[in-house]
Amino acid sequence: MKTLLDVKNVSKRYGQETLALSNVNFSVNEGEFVSIIGPSGAGKSTLLRCINRMIDATDGEIHFENEDILKYNKREMRRLRTKVGMIFQHYNLVNRLSVIENVLHGRLGYKSTIAGILGLYSEEEKRQAIKLLGLLGLEEQVYKRCDQLSGGQKQRVGIARALIQDPKILLCDEPIASLDPNASKIIMDYLQTVSKTMGITVIVNLHQVDVALNYSDRIIGVSKGQIVYDGYPKDITTNQIHSIYGSEAGDLMIDLGGRNAG
Ligand SMILES: Nc1ncnc2c1ncn2[C@@H]1O[C@H](COP(=O)(O)OP(=O)(O)OP(=O)(O)O)[C@@H](O)[C@H]1O
């Protein structure tokens, strides 16, 4: 297995008081599906934002395809961003634009500013957008405005927009937090398909422990900015879930099927 991402001794401070990440270490292999779980404020979003350099880690190294991305200049950062697809809780779509226009925005990282502003996309890019929307079950929605879609459909547009970048990795920050259980299942199934059939690595921040256990190759548990679990879903115990969630654990409905009690 080839390592795609290697996070070494990463810390992130906001101002003087908040140490959001403290000496975080983990690596992710190509094609792996990893869920990051932990209570509110544990540092999950901060971690994803450091990986795509939306924010800068205060300390440590982040290697992506064996290069330290914290040393990247602007041009290298632009190249990195085309390889990293982002999926957001609130979709981050332009609601007044059509579905296909939103998907094509995923190509902007490959274009000059002028071509981007003028919305100049090739026929091949448009064909690819329509193909991806078809794969995500949105063939009927291609020319609709995004504000006419359900939450689950919007998130599928978000996935299509990320995939048209031709990414190596998808970073998904609470992708199902605004969705009902049915729509959530559809989104998680698509993310799993992306990982298994396209070989794209997926890292997903999740609040729902049961979903993380069902879908992931690996679980990373974060508490107070530190990794407190890194292993297979099948090996996680109720005690470990309690140590990840602390006092919030009692509110979680976790069914480990009696396998890992203790
Ligand atoms: N821009 C910021 N400025 C200052 N502090 C911040 C900022 N963003 C996050 N924090 C703090 O850093 C810590 C980690 O926050 P983060 O959003 O990464 O946690 P999280 O695990 O993603 O939480 P949630 O599940 O609620 O989204 C929290 O204490 C938060 O208040």
TrEMBL record:
Keyword set includes Nucleotide-binding: yes
Xref: CDD domains: ABC_PhnC_transporter (cd03256)
UniProt keyword annotation of ATP-binding present: yes
Keywords: ATP-binding, Cell membrane, Hydrolase, Membrane, Nucleotide-binding, Phosphonate transport, Translocase, Transport
Cellular component aspect of the GO annotation: membrane
Listed EC numbers: 3.6.3.28
GO MF entry, a single one: ATP hydrolysis activity
Alphabetical list of SMART domains matching this protein: AAA
Entries under Pfam families matching the protein: ABC_tran (PF00005)
Domain of life: Bacteria
Entries under Gene3D superfamilies matching the protein: P-loop containing nucleotide triphosphate hydrolases
ABC transporter domain: residues covered: 5-249
Main enzyme class: hydrolase
NCBIfam families in alphabetical order: ABC_phnC
Protein name as catalogued: Phosphonate ABC transporter ATP-binding protein
